[in-house]
Amino acid sequence: MSQVPQQQPVASAISAISDTQQHTARSCGSRWGKNKLERLEVAREYSRSLGENPTILQWEAHRIEFVNGYVESNPDNMGNSADVAWKEFAGYLYTLFSVQQPTVPRSEGAKKKREERAKKQEAILAKYEDKSAADLRGMRAAALQKAAAGSEIAEKIAAELKKVLRIKTADENALIAEERKELRTQVRSAAGKCTDLDKLRAALEILDDDTDLEFITDDDDQD
């Protein structure tokens, strides 16, 4: 099995950080790869060099120097070990000092488009507010039949109903998941407090996936 060579050092965004910062970040990468006992001090020194509110360019320049330092001090490592080391180090920075990669600020144009999409979505949902998912599926099936017959309006309605169904289904699923989570918590709590063996056995039998349950309905009572 052939070994994949270790990645080569990459060019740094020199203008983004000072020479001292470059040296510090590279030194941290080198030391991180050599001595695990020194990791706390390495992370502390790196976070000080990075500062409290680094720009995206400053963050990336520090990252590049760290990776270069790691690569240079570990020339025999194979594959993407430097990227793995950086990912581990970045997690260490966040855990110890709450330092993480800055987010890309959204442009005003992107923000405006997002708000417009949200308004359109609210307007569409308002049209079908009193309709259940089952109602919407029936309406969409009818619209699809008309669309198949050549109706362009029905085709647009079917597409609109598809969007509404997707949103409503996601919301309903979220509510069901939340209710399920709450009920499981209540069941665990009740089971933990219960001392009646018969009740516990009955509950286990009901909750067993292999148990077939039979429910008595009003129709059964009338037989």
Structure notes:
There is one protein chain. This protein has 223 residues and is mainly alpha-helical. Helices cover 70% and strands 0% of the residues. The protein is flat and about 70 Å long.
The level of helicity is: 55-70%
Label the structural class.
mainly alpha
Question: Segments where pLDDT lies below 50 for 5+ residues?
Answer: 1-6, 213-223
Number of domains: 2
Distance between the termini: 74 Å
Beta-sheet strand percentage? under 5%
Mean pLDDT comes to 80
What is the strand tally?
0
Give the biggest sheet.
none
Shape verdict: flat
How many separate helices?
Answer: 9
Please provide the ordered H/E string of secondary-structure elements.
HHHHHHHHH
Radius of gyration, whole Å: 30 Å
Keywords:
223 residues, mainly alpha, flat, disordered N terminus, disordered C terminus
Write a brief caption for the model:
By secondary structure, this protein is mostly helical.
What's the layout of helices and strands?
Blueprint: H1 19-32, H2 39-50, H3 56-73, H4 81-97, H5 108-127, H6 133-148, H7 152-193, H8 197-207, H9 218-222
